[in-house]
Design a protein that fits this description.
single chain; alpha/beta; 4-stranded parallel β-sheet; two-stranded antiparallel sheet; 6 strands; 35% helix
């Protein structure tokens, strides 16, 4: 395993079932930026969610967001992690969005690479927490605390590996 993104393909024998995923290895001194997806990369929470998950449309994003993130990455050597309260069952569609969205500038850059963290819930539970109880901030805070704990266990002495975060709500 090397620093950055590592592609993994696991095959279970004798069934031949397989799964592909990425593992990100970061240095303890890396500076992490948390990016919310719905309403922050996409132009709205609900419409962005529906268009990317159910319709496979990736154009409903804020103008300039991809170029902005690339500027941050190159000038300040930042690493990005993507955070959403979308349910685990929509991880594949969300990952495809992160890989498939392109900037409108020449060359059509994609979002900077980074791990995706989703809620560990099912669709109806996630919708209930998003629409009825508005608990998404606590879900996201729990996920981020787990990332902090991993860095702490690795010996990071900083209060947090996060140097910035973007969301479209005050709680985020």
């Amino acid at each position: 395993i090397h620093m950055g993104r590592n592609k993994v393909h696991c095959i279970q024998t004798p069934s031949g079932s397989s799964v592909r995923f990425d593992i990100y290895l970061y240095n303890l001194q890396d500076k992490l930026v948390v990016m919310d997806i719905d309403g922050t990369i996409t132009r709205s929470d609900l419409t962005g969610y529906i268009q990317t998950v159910y319709l496979g449309l990736y154009s409903y994003i804020h103008d300039g967001i991809i170029d902005f993130l690339h500027t941050l990455q190159s000038k300040h050597h930042l690493k990005f992690i993507y955070l959403t309260s979308r349910p685990m069952g929509h991880r594949k569609e969300t990952f495809n969005f992160l890989k498939g969205v392109r900037s409108a500038t020449v060359g059509g850059k994609t979002l900077p690479a980074g791990p995706l963290f989703t809620a560990k819930t099912r669709l109806m539970v996630a919708l209930y927490k998003e629409v009825v109880t508005r608990e998404t901030a606590s879900i996201k805070a729990s996920i981020l605390q787990q990332v902090v704990d991993i860095f702490k266990k690795g010996g990071d002495m900083r209060p947090s590996p996060f140097v910035a975060g973007w969301g479209n709500k005050v709680q985020e």
